[in-house]
């Protein structure tokens, strides 16, 4: 994650250039990486809502599709909101380590530092907020698409032991960032599949916003989307 004020301001500037959504420092989401069936005790906890064994991987990316933060320790049955609730990054936001906010989907609760879409927008301002939010947050979906096209093992699945799978996922994230820094492109024939992946609808159980988060989001809309 960007640490200095200059780094944070540059990240915010790049996100704002997408759809004029201010103060965004990262887009957050989770993606399931398939693993082989776990037969040990607790193996059923790796089975996700789609019925296959996986690790639920949390990622925060920037506007350049680089992975700034990654969590790979959770089994496939664990909900996205719990992963964020118990991660170190949430503690850093609550401690005031960052000057910006995260954007997430409705699978997360709306908090003062993580904004989600409005479930039922009723005013032009709220509709503008939702449109800008969706376009800006889509960055993390594009990041997943590019990451998985670069490293097909993330698409096919990991079939070694669980600990090796976790380390491999992190290594792929590091190499993905290096490839972006070096401007290494994926093969041209793969671009269509990246766009297809990023446009797939993500179904999440709606999580009600916190009171403080709801108030902060309302103030934000009134300030920036009039």
TrEMBL record:
Q: Which UniProt keywords apply?
A: Hydrolase, Metal-binding, Nuclease, Nucleus
Taxonomic path = Eukaryota, Metazoa, Ecdysozoa, Arthropoda, Hexapoda
Supply the source organism for this entry.
Parnassius mnemosyne (clouded apollo)
Q: Where in the cell is it found?
A: Nucleus
- Please give the Gene Ontology molecular function terms for this protein: hydrolase activity; metal ion binding; nuclease activity
Entry-linked InterPro entries = HARBI1-like, HARBI1_dom
Q: Does the keyword RNA-binding apply?
A: no
The protein here is known as: DDE Tnp4 domain-containing protein
Query: Which cofactors does it use?
Result: a divalent metal cation
Tell me which domain of life the UniProt entry assigns to the organism this sequence originates from: Eukaryota
What residues does the DDE Tnp4 domain cover? 28-177
Would the keyword Metal-binding turn up in this protein's UniProt record? yes
Q: Which cellular component appears as one GO term in the record? A: nucleus
Family to which this protein belongs: Belongs to the HARBI1 family.
């Amino acid at each position: 994650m960007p640490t200095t004020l200059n780094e944070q301001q540059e990240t915010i500037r790049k996100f704002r250039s997408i759809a004029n959504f201010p103060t965004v420092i990262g887009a957050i989401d989770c993606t399931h990486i398939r693993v082989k069936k776990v037969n040990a005790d607790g193996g059923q906890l790796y089975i996700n809502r789609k019925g296959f064994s996986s690790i639920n991987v949390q990622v925060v990316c920037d506007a350049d599709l680089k992975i700034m933060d990654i969590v790979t320790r959770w089994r496939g049955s664990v909900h996205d909101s719990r992963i964020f609730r118990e991660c170190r990054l949430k503690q850093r936001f609550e401690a005031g380590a960052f000057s910006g906010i995260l954007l997430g989907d409705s699978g997360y609760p709306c908090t003062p530092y993580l904004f989600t879409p409005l479930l039922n927008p009723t005013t032009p301002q709220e509709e503008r907020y939702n449109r800008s939010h969706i376009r800006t947050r889509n960055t993390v979906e594009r990041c997943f698409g590019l990451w998985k096209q670069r490293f097909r093992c993330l698409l096919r699945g990991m079939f070694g032991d669980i600990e090796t799978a976790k380390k491999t996922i992190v290594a792929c994230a590091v190499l993905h960032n290096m490839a972006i820094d070096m401007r290494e492109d994926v093969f041209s024939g793969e671009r269509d599949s990246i766009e297809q992946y990023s446009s797939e609808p993500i179904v999440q159980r709606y999580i009600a916003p916190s009171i403080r988060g709801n108030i902060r989001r309302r103030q934000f809309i009134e300030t920036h989307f009039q």
